[in-house]
UniProtKB/TrEMBL annotation:
Organism expressing this protein natively: Paracoccus marinaquae
Ranges for domain Cation efflux protein cytoplasmic: 211-288
Subcellular compartments: Membrane
Record InterPro entries: Cation_efflux (IPR002524), Cation_efflux_CTD (IPR027470), Cation_efflux_TM (IPR058533), CDF_Transporter (IPR050291)
All residue ranges annotated as the Cation efflux protein transmembrane domain in the record: 15-206
rRNA processing as UniProt keyword: no
Transmembrane segments: 12-33, 45-65, 77-97, 117-136, 157-178
Family membership noted in the UniProt record: Belongs to the cation diffusion facilitator (CDF) transporter (TC 2.A.4) family.
Name the record gives this protein: Cation diffusion facilitator family transporter
One Pfam family named in its UniProt record: ZT_dimer
Primary localisation category: membrane
Keyword Transport: yes
Length: 299
């Protein structure tokens, strides 16, 4: 777990470096061209830097061990960061749409457009590579903060592509209105992505259960490994960052010894942790008259 958390922290810190580099490049592209679309793109990058800082803080807090005040750990800190990033994506989208509207009312005359396009394209390529790293590694490390940061950068990549298309078409066609028009369309798309990131993260804060596929795997493991028990019921799950919480009631024969019941629980827990390495499992053992004849049947 320590190795995974160290890698997560390094990736979160790397996002700050990448964000600052891309921000400088995009500001340079806007300064050279005067394009409202490129200005909008740069505005989003300022939010990227703030989001990367928030993600680093959240990952650092989530890495803290459980204590007296937080006996279940600090894993949900990453969800707070992910919600914040979703909100920031929405704010960036609104800023872009505002600048697009201003440009629509007074289309700018672009200066040195191709130089600015080249610089902005380089910044977009850096973001594309880094967002792929964050999303793939974040999912592997089960880090909501890194995945949200990656999706945030993905929105930036999409906006950069739209912005570049708008600038190119504006220059080639002479229709200056295309510059702010496409910037506004990109802003609407980013607004949609921001809502998706926020909604997903809020579900995590609300103790959302594990996905249906994972839940079915958990049920199968309990059924296969609970030999000697009668049934398992009231199965509940939730997840927070890298940790999955599982609890259920295990019904055993009234004549089963404490040692035997404990051995069954150990067997179930060992198999569940092969599926979910950082699972925290709570099993409440009950006598047979507590059986509900529902839930997970033991094979």
């Amino acid at each position: 777990m320590a190795g995974s958390m160290t890698l997560t922290l390094k990736l979160a810190a790397g996002s700050i470096v990448v964000g600052l580099t891309v921000l400088v490049l995009k500001l340079l592209a806007w300064w050279m061209t005067g394009s409202v679309a490129l200005l909008s793109d740069a505005l989003e990058s300022t939010v990227n830097v703030a989001s990367a800082v928030a993600a680093l803080i959240a990952v650092h807090v989530a890495a803290r061990p459980a204590d007296a005040g937080h006996p279940y750990g600090h894993h949900k800190a990453e969800f707070f960061s992910a919600v914040l990033e979703g909100v920031m994506i929405i704010v960036a989208a609104l800023l872009i749409m505002r600048e697009a509207w201003r440009g629509f009312l007074s289309p700018p005359v672009l200066e040195s457009p191709f130089e600015g396009i080249a610089i902005n394209a380089a910044a977009g390529l850096i973001n594309a590579v880094w967002c792929w790293v964050l999303i793939t590694r974040g999912r592997r490390l089960k880090s909501p903060a890194l995945v949200a940061d990656g999706k945030h950068l993905l929105s930036d990549v999409i906006s950069s592509g739209g912005v570049l298309l708008g600038v190119v078409l504006s220059v080639l066609s002479g229709w200056a209105i295309l510059d702010p028009l496409l910037a506004g369309l990109v802003g609407l798309n980013i607004l949609r992505m921001g809502w998706q990131v926020t909604a997903t993260s809020l579900n995590g804060l609300m103790d959302e259960a594990v996905p249906a596929e994972t839940l079915e795997q958990i049920r199968s493991i309990i059924s296969e490994e609970a030999g000697g028990a009668i049934e398992a019921h009231d199965l509940r799950t939730r997840h927070a960052g890298t940790v999955t919480f599982i609890d259920f009631h295990l019904v055993v024969d009234g004549q089963t010894t404490v040692d035997d019941a404990h051995a069954i629980c150990d067997r179930i827990e060992a198999s569940l942790r092969k599926l979910l390495r950082e699972a925290q499992i709570t099993i409440h053992v009950e006598p047979e008259h507590k059986a509900k004849h529902s839930g997970v049947l033991v094979l």
